[in-house]
Write a structure and sequence with these properties.
Blueprint lengths: L2 H14 L3 E7 L15 E7 L3 H4 L3 H4 L4 E7 L7 E7 L2 E8 L2 H4 L7 H5 L2 E4 L23 H24 L2 H26 L13 H4 L1 H8 L7 H26 L6 H11 L4
Parallel strand pairs: 2-5
Antiparallel strand pairs: 1-2, 1-6, 3-4, 4-5
Length: 276
């Protein structure tokens, strides 16, 4: 991959743009504990006097290479506007930040910077007061009873409809709902891991999942995936329901939540009864 070439172009551009005051790399390429490879993206934060000109004009990132596709992500929940850009040489994820991105962490790093960061450009030393990264991660909070209840209700709502899709052979629609079911299956596994180890590094969309689910569970999860055919879709749907029910009961017991098995019993009977 040509990520180093992309970085060279980005830094050359940053040095010529007076609005850009610093460039910081985060993510796996900056973390001592990360495991970047040829398929890893490059996370770059552009620290600006005013990020709005970059947010309002896409021409700047097209100058770094041949753009295959890109996404614009708006700032939500205190995050920064982001441009995820796929070049022929690799992917660069740009965060468009003001000075507060650095000044706000001088008394304590946030989770992303704690994992590791590298200051690539900082002529005025505005990043000099940042603490060193310790390679640790912030603890994920345990689930609340309401969060657990919502996950359980949503999973079984989605699973209820799968029997009809299987019976009618609507396998594309089944796969669509299966995506939501897998989201909550993963969440239940994350909470189960946190119950066993509050320091478990459960990350976005299951990154590094094999490191914290355990070999037995990893093998069991293979059964929860099938192809676009009736037989394997039926088998995978049943397995997904069985695993979710098992993990949900374990999470409920660990955190003292109530778990009502009535929906699980009814939905599993309904799904198992379909002629695949």
């Amino acid at each position: 991959m040509g990520d180093h070439l992309l970085l060279d172009r980005i830094l050359s551009w940053a040095k010529d743009d007076p609005n850009v005051r610093a460039v910081v790399m985060t993510g796996s390429r900056a973390s001592g504990r990360g495991r970047p490879d040829d398929w890893s993206d490059t996370d770059v934060e552009l620290i600006c006097d005013d990020p709005s000109p970059l947010a309002g004009d896409d021409a700047w990132f097209h100058a770094f290479g041949d753009v295959l596709t890109f996404l614009r992500l708006s700032a939500e929940d205190g995050a920064h506007q982001t441009r995820l850009v796929v070049y022929t040489e690799g992917e660069v994820d740009f965060s468009l930040c003001g000075h507060d991105r650095l000044t706000g962490q001088q008394d304590g790093l946030g989770d992303l910077y704690r994992r590791g960061y590298r200051v690539l450009y900082d002529p005025d030393g505005i990043a000099a007061a940042l603490p060193e990264a310790d390679g640790e991660h912030e603890r994920r909070p345990p689930p609340t009873a309401d969060e657990f209840d919502h996950a359980v209700r949503t999973f079984w709502f989605e699973a209820y409809h799968q029997a009809g899709y299987l019976a009618r052979g609507e396998l594309w629609a089944l796969k669509f709902r299966d995506g939501t079911m897998k989201k909550y299956l993963r969440r239940m596994l994350e909470w189960r891991a946190l119950a066993a180890d509050p320091d478990a590094d459960v990350r976005h969309i299951g990154h590094g999942m094999r490191d914290w689910v355990g070999e037995e569970d990893w093998r069991d999860l293979h059964a929860a995936w099938g192809g676009l055919d009736a037989a394997s879709s039926h088998r995978a749907t049943v397995a997904t329901c069985v695993l979710f029910g098992r993990y949900a009961r374990e999470v409920a017991a660990s955190f003292g939540f109530g778990y009502r098995p009535r929906a699980e019993t009814h939905v599993l009977e309904r799904v198992r009864g379909v002629e695949a």
